Amino acid sequence: MPATDRSALNISALADMCLGYLAENPEELLGFMQHAGLTPDALRAAIGSDRLQHGLIDYFASNEPILLALCANSGITPEQFMRVWYRLNRVE
């Protein structure tokens, strides 16, 4: 994704990055599943849902080591990630 596209990172794309990172790091995937109370079947069924997307983004936002690893591996900045998180969590 070109840098200009990353400045407008959307929720779905960011959640996909999070899920991809977890898929490549089974120990982190297990931690997420335990945190979210998901079985493998429940995780598969939830893929693409708003609830899972928001849960993935919240999980990474609250776990700085994997947030930084995701950003380094994906070529995005923590600030770009947190802007998406903020859009999900702002109170109006």
**End-to-end distance:** 31 Å
Low-confidence stretches: 1-7
Beta strand count? 0
Number of helices: 7
Pfam family, one: DUF3572
Keywords: Isomerase
InterPro entries: DUF3572
Organism: Devosia subaequoris
Structure overview:
The relative contact order is 0.17. Helix 2 (11-24) packs across helix 5 and helix 5 packs across helix 7. The chain has one domain. By secondary structure, the chain is an all-alpha fold. Residues 1-7 have low confidence and may be disordered. Helix content is 77%, strand content 0%. This is 2-hydroxychromene-2-carboxylate isomerase. It comes from Devosia subaequoris. It holds the Pfam family DUF3572.
Outline of the structure:
The chain has about 90 residues and is mostly helical. Helices cover about 75% and strands about 0% of the residues.
Outline the secondary-structure elements.
Layout: H1 3-6, H2 11-24, H3 26-36, H4 40-46, H5 50-61, H6 64-74, H7 78-89
Helix pairs in contact: 2-3, 2-5, 5-7
Salient structural properties:
mainly alpha, 92 residues
